[in-house]
């Protein structure tokens, strides 16, 4: 059955040419066309901007089968005291959507108001991309699927905007949209995207102002621009399930028709994170981990993975995991203390103990759970814990939950540690540190830490999450790195980084491991690791022992990468596989990471609270399977990106 698209455009002549007055479009059945045409003409003749000199009605048949049905965007409302606050809210939303310079986009809205359609901007460079700069991009061929034809007699700003925003948000490569109506009697505007939904902002201009505009923000290859324009301008769309317009609550907060929004405080907190460049987002991978991955529709070089030895996608590791899955099933069924353990659990624990030259080992579900479980089991009220100020969050959380006295010493400063240990000599306590610090890539001075612990009678504990498979000639960790015969009293590690699987572990003497089985709550009350990751870790451990050249390649790659960065004027050094590239400003770090991703390089922007405020950085993680030419090109791109963002005000 055919539907009919009915479009109305009204304008008047001015000294400078033609001024747009009004426009509307509906998609209706044949019997509704005459009444709709009459209603649209009447609307054109009674517009707040004045009477037009020219009104055009265009009617086209649209096969119902050709209409793409799209869900309406979720909607929420933000109230504000005045247009200035409304524009600040809009800028925060654009930043949250990933727009590089929201204030510059807002400045272009006035210029966009002179177009019949929308301005189309590159979301990063702000280059105008409309084929016709005088006309703009016209979003057409759309309507609400459940809207009655009689509703056309009066303009429903909200409903028409929801239809347009929902269609545009689903167009390929459209990042976001911002709109302020040019109707003098309507001051509400909106920002919309697939991620944000449709966000109404109560006041974005003063009452009576004829100014307004619409901007679509594009991020994608230029070769795909034609497909985006075709979707916006020509693809028939019916938008389904348009919700009722939400009302406005207190300034800056969301509200819903049924009453106060209990979650408004989360919107406010998220907006503050966005404004400060601190909001996180998750990128979705479309391929197995490797030196190169498919991420968000593009192929990128990966410098953000802790799979240091390239074992997560190794065919041998996957095959052994698959065999275990077939033999033992997908889940373990319960805690090891209540349901029993697989033989694989014990085999892996014996192998890990041998790797770390320890008497015994115990598996945990994650490295985080291992740190929390060990610290809270060993320390309690009345005890003292000495913790490096840059220790990982899992160590910090374990210290806090233990209820012991916590003494924080300056990062890797063994003189400060010894001075503090001397003050607490004779007490029961623990000295705990990362082996490799995850945000800086530097290594604990282990010989001195062990000397201090033994001299003052404190237990020593080292987290080797980023050291196993990375430090030492064969990847055994920090003790091998320093050529030590003795290991720390407690060694924590993870299976999820260089060993390419998942899970955590603790190594130490047999008394310690027996005690943890009976006291570590994160072990006792957790379902055991399933067979597949345990078997994968066993195979990865075998490969590490058989192929120490992987460790050597990783260390050589890191040295090569750092040297290329230094040649470009970027300070870069690392004793591990983590290379921190200090930026300072949080927003600049995010901008640099975004520019590099667009250039085909994925690495992480690290910000508060992972590092102190003002110490934001790019964190590059080198892999053994990175090719030299790829690392050289990555270094070149990073040098350019860092210079560019530092030159910005």
Brief summary:
With 649 residues, the chain is an alpha/beta fold. Helices cover 36% and strands 22% of the residues.
Output the strand order for the largest sheet.
Answer: 17-23-22-21-20-18-19
Radius of gyration: 31 Å
Envelope shape: elongated
Which secondary-structure class do the elements indicate?
Answer: alpha/beta
| Average pLDDT, all residues | 89
The low-confidence parts are 148-153, 250-258
Provide structural commentary.
The chain is an alpha/beta fold and 649 residues long. It is built from 20 helices and 27 strands.
List the topology elements:
Elements: E1 2-14, E2 17-28, H1 33-45, E3 54-63, E4 68-71, E5 75-78, H2 83-97, H3 102-112, E6 119-122, E7 142-144, H4 157-169, E8 174-180, E9 189-193, E10 197-201, E11 213-218, H5 225-234, E12 237-240, E13 255-256, E14 259-260, H6 264-275, E15 292-295, E16 298-302, H7 315-328, H8 336-339, H9 343-355, E17 360-364, H10 367-378, E18 384-388, H11 393-402, E19 405-409, H12 414-423, E20 429-434, H13 446-456, E21 459-463, H14 478-482, E22 490-494, E23 504-508, H15 510-519, H16 521-524, H17 531-546, H18 549-567, E24 578-584, H19 586-598, E25 601-602, E26 604-606, E27 616-621, H20 628-647
Parallel strand pairs: 4-12, 5-10, 6-11, 7-12, 16-25, 18-19, 18-20, 20-21, 21-22
Antiparallel strand pairs: 1-2, 1-3, 8-9, 8-11, 9-10, 13-14, 15-16, 17-23, 22-23, 24-27, 26-27
Helix pairs in contact: 2-3, 2-6, 7-17, 9-17, 10-11, 12-13, 18-20, 19-20
């Amino acid at each position: 059955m055919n539907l009919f698209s009915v479009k109305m455009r009204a304008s008047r002549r001015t000294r400078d040419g033609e001024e747009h007055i009004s426009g509307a479009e509906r998609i209706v059945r044949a019997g509704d066309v005459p009444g709709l045409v009459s209603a649209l003409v009447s609307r054109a003749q009674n517009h707040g901007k004045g009477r037009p000199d020219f009104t055009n009605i265009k009617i086209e048949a649209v096969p119902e089968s050709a209409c793409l049905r799209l869900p309406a965007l979720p909607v929420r409302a933000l109230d504000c005291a005045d247009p200035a606050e409304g524009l600040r809210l809009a800028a925060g939303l654009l930043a949250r959507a990933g727009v590089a310079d929201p204030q510059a986009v807002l400045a272009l809205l006035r210029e966009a108001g002179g177009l019949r359609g929308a301005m189309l901007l590159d979301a990063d460079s702000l280059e105008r991309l409309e084929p016709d700069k005088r006309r703009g991009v016209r979003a057409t061929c759309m309507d609400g699927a459940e809207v009655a034809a009689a509703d056309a007699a009066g303009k429903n700003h909200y409903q028409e905007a929801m239809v347009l925003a929902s269609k545009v948000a689903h167009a390929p490569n459209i990042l976001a949209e911002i709109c302020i109506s040019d109707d003098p009697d309507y001051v509400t505007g909106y920002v919309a995207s697939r991620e944000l939904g449709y966000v109404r902002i109560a006041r974005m201009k003063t009452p009576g102002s004829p100014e307004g505009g619409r901007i679509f923000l594009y991020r994608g290859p230029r070769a795909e621009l034609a497909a985006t324009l075709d979707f916006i301008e020509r693809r028939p769309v019916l938008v389904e399930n348009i919700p009722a317009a939400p009302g406005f609550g207190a300034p800056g907060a969301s509200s819903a028709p049924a009453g106060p929004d209990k979650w408004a405080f989360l919107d406010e907190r998220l907006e503050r994170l966005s404004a400060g460049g601190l909001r996180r987002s998750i990128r979705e991978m479309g391929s197995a981990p490797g030196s190169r991955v498919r991420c968000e529709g593009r192929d990128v070089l990966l410098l953000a993975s802790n799979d240091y030895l390239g074992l997560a996608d190794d065919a041998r590791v996957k095959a052994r995991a698959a065999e275990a899955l077939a033999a033992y099933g997908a889940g373990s069924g319960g805690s090891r203390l209540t349901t029993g353990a697989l033989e694989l659990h014990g085999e892996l624990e014996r192998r890990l103990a041998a790797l770390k030259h320890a008497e015994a080992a115990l598996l945990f579900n994650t490295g985080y759970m291992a740190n929390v479980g060990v610290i809270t089991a060993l320390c309690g009220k009345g005890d003292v814990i000495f913790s490096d100020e840059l220790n990982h969050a899992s160590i910090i959380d374990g210290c806090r939950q233990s209820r012991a006295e916590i003494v924080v010493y300056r990062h890797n400063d063994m003189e400060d540690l010894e001075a503090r240990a001397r003050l607490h000599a004779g007490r029961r306590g623990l000295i705990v540190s990362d082996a490799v610090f995850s945000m800086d890539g530097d290594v604990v001075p282990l010989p001195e830490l062990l000397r201090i612990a033994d001299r003052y009678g404190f237990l020593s504990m080292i987290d080797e999450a980023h050291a196993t498979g990375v430090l030492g000639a064969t990847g055994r960790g920090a003790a091998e790195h320093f050529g030590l015969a003795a290991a720390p009293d407690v060694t924590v590690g993870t299976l999820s980084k260089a060993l390419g699987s998942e899970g955590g572990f603790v190594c130490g003497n047999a008394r310690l491991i027996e005690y943890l089985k009976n006291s570590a709550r994160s072990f006792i009350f957790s379902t055991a690791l399933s067979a597949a990751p345990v078997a994968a870790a066993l195979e990865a451990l075998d490969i590490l022992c058989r192929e120490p050249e992987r460790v050597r390649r990783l260390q050589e790659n890191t040295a090569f990468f750092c040297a290329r960065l230094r040649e470009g004027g970027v300070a870069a050094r690392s004793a591990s596989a983590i290379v921190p590239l200090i930026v300072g400003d949080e927003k600049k770090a995010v901008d640099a990471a975004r520019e590099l991703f667009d250039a085909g390089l994925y690495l992480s922007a690290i910000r508060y609270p992972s590092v102190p405020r003002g110490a934001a950085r790019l964190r590059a993680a080198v892999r053994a399977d990175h090719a030299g030419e790829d690392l050289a090109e990555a270094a070149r791109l990073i040098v350019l990106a860092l210079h560019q963002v530092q030159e910005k005000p």
